[in-house]
């Protein structure tokens, strides 16, 4: 499939149950549709400090608080004492390009972005059943306490699907991506 060029910027928010494959789906779908990824800032330490992943911009708590107080974030969240937020400047820079932009947020972040940007925002809810979350994260080498924490929040997270514009169960990765690409044709091409 060719890269979709949007007639106006559209913000695609990947949300859903933790460990359902949102980052993987976002990356692969984004490559196909030409989405510009916008990473969140976080004060959470990288899970592998020797090899921090590229999913976030890891910043200090002092820097986060300073930026938050001066209104630099589109939205922020506190999850397990860690702060997360998307910088408005990062979002605006990504939206200058004539392509869709992609954010990965929990439900509060998805709702906040929807409220702020309205029709520009398309929320894509990704989920799998609890047992699959456990199996996938175990095989990825995720720490036991992180997996347990994800599973504890599963029920409250999964109910948010009803508020989202699109809902996909991520069973077979390539099929999930195919289905999302098909559904996203509504928004440009
Ligand atoms: N459809 C799929 N089938 C099998 N494995 C998958 C599928 N989708 C993603 N995975 C794998 O599941 C694991 C979790 O995926 P990923 O890190 O993308 O999830 P996430 O929802 O972004 O997680 P987190 O909540 O930690 O941010 C990864 O090892 C990924 O390769
Ligand atoms: N509301 C926001 N939620 C965010 C943001 N960046 C990431 N997230 C979500 O936080 C949880 C925890 O992530 P983890 O990587 O530490 O396990 C997960 O649901 C992310 O999608 C953000 O800027 N705002």
Automatic annotation (TrEMBL):
One of its GO terms (molecular function) is GMP kinase activity. Transmembrane segments: none annotated. Gene3D superfamilies: P-loop containing nucleotide triphosphate hydrolases. It comes from the Bacteria. Keywords: Kinase, Transferase. GO terms for cellular component: cytosol. It catalyses: GMP + ATP = GDP + ADP. SUPFAM superfamilies: P-loop containing nucleoside triphosphate hydrolases (SSF52540). Residues 9-189 form the Guanylate kinase-like domain. It holds the Pfam family Guanylate_kin. Belongs to the guanylate kinase family. Essential for recycling GMP and indirectly, cGMP. This is Guanylate kinase. It comes from Cohnella cholangitidis. The lineage of its organism: Bacteria, Bacillati, Bacillota, Bacilli, Bacillales.
